[in-house]
Amino acid sequence: MLEDVKINVKIKLAALWAATMFCYLYADICSLFKPGIIEQIMAGQVSVFKINQAFLLGSAILMSIPAIMVFLSLILKSKINRYINIILGIVHIGIVITTMLMPGTWAYYLYYSVVEIVFLSLIVWYAWKWPQQRVSPNNRTYASVTK
């Protein structure tokens, strides 16, 4: 019989952020193969966005969040960890939905977006359902309580 090991919520969250980050990366790499995209980039325009320092800095900040969350999900205290994962998960779901709705979105990008939304929704779900520990009044030991 195979052992079914219980995985800590922090590890689940870190893994989901890593998976989300890879989907972001792969979707962007696939975009480079779209006809005309290299010419747009060289001309300083991608879709409706002008490529400038503000655009690139904003993109860098946005795309670094999943990488940062892989680390933070493992080291932050549970209470703050839970709130940050819920908030950033919801924010990123909104961003992914917004990019899905841009005109001319290709099927591969929609596919990656759906996968990202599933991963981000799981981040929010696991953070929301984070198991709580209660102190036993008799011997001051902790017991895990799942919601």
Question: Structural class, from secondary structure content?
Answer: mainly alpha
Q: Would you list the SSEs in sequence order as H and E? A: HHEEHHHEE
DSSP helical segment count: 5
Major beta sheet, strand line-up: 1-2
Question: What amount of the residues lies in strands?
Answer: 5-15%
What sort of overall outline do the alpha carbons produce when their principal axes are compared? Answer: elongated
N-to-C CA distance: 28 Å
How many beta-strand elements?
A: 4
Q: Output the radius of gyration.
A: 19 Å
Task: Give your account of this protein's structure.
The protein is built from five helices and four strands, in the order H-H-E-E-H-H-H-E-E. The model has no long low-confidence stretch (mean pLDDT 92). Helix 1 packs antiparallel against helix 5. A two-stranded antiparallel sheet has the order 1-2. Strand 3 and strand 4 form a beta hairpin. It has one domain. It is mostly helical and 147 residues long. The chain is elongated. The longest helix is centred in the first third of the chain and has 23 residues.
